[in-house]
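User: Could you go from structure to sequence for me? I need the amino acid at each position, not a summary. Structure tokens:
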């Protein structure tokens, strides 16, 4: 028996290949981890530096964007303001043109109205002159006829009562004078020769017959004898209202008609008693 067979071996037993591979893998993995960690360290430092600089860039960009937006908004406001001003100016021009046209139209209308008024006034004056000339002729004729009537009455006084001839002559004179004033104007307080009020006309008509009546209608309505409206004679005084408180008077001219200075609208007119029925009448002659 060999001596070496009983001596224990000091060499380690051979490890299995799988265990060797595992240990190698672990070691390799550890070393790889260290390598990766080492490599990762420097790579992370650079992004930190870039992260610090980016807020400054973003802030500058935001400020520029805000300024641009504000400028754009101001430009839009300026454009809108200018548009409003242009519209206002255009409207003002149109209004001025319209006002001018209206002023021209009114001026032309005023001139036409003034021309028409002047023409009407001239025609009225011409007509009034013609009427005055006609009335003057009638009055001249009336005076002549009254004089001749007076002479005839004087000549026939022996054959007829003087009172009867005087009444007829006076009545004719009063009626003729009243009719000659038809067309004259009515003026309150008027006593002629071309404008009358109601009592002024009656007073003037009776004055042609030599009779001086009271001036106002109230007194004229009681000056004489009250007579019925069914028994009137030319020359009688008609009155409206109560006797002594009459507000209007006129002269009965025969044929159911009267002559009176009515009002400012109609002037002196001859009308039927049916137009405005009087209240009563007095006979002075």
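Assistant: Here is the amino acid at each position, in order:
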């Amino acid at each position: 028996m060999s001596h070496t067979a009983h001596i224990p071996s000091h060499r380690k037993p051979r490890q299995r290949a799988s265990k060797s591979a595992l240990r190698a893998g672990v070691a390799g993995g550890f070393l790889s981890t260290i390598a990766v960690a080492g490599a990762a360290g420097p790579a992370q430092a650079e992004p930190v530096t870039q992260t610090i600089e980016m807020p400054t860039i973003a802030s500058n960009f935001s400020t520029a964007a805000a300024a641009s937006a504000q400028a754009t908004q101001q430009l839009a406001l300026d454009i809108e303001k200018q548009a409003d001003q242009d519209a206002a100016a255009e409207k003002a021009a149109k209004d001025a043109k319209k006002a001018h046209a209206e002023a021209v139209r009114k001026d032309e209308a005023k001139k036409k109205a003034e021309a028409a008024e002047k023409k009407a006034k001239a025609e009225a004056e011409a007509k009034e002159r013609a009427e005055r000339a006609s009335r003057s002729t009638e009055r001249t004729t009336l005076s002549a006829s009254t004089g001749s009537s007076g002479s005839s009455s004087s000549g026939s006084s022996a054959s007829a009562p003087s009172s009867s001839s005087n009444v007829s002559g006076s009545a004719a004179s009063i009626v003729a004078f009243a009719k000659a004033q038809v067309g004259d104007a009515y003026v309150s307080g008027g006593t002629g020769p071309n404008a009358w009020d109601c009592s002024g006309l009656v007073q003037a008509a009776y004055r042609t017959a030599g009779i001086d009546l009271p001036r106002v209608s109230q007194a004229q309505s009681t000056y004489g004898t009250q007579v019925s409206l069914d028994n009137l004679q030319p020359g009688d005084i008609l009155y409206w209202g109560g006797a002594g408180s009459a507000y209007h008077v006129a002269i009965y001219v025969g044929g159911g008609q009267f002559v009176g200075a009515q009002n400012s609208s109609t002037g002196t007119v001859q009308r039927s008693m049916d137009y405005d029925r009087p209240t009563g009448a007095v006979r002075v002659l």
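One structural detail worth keeping in mind: The mean pLDDT is 76.
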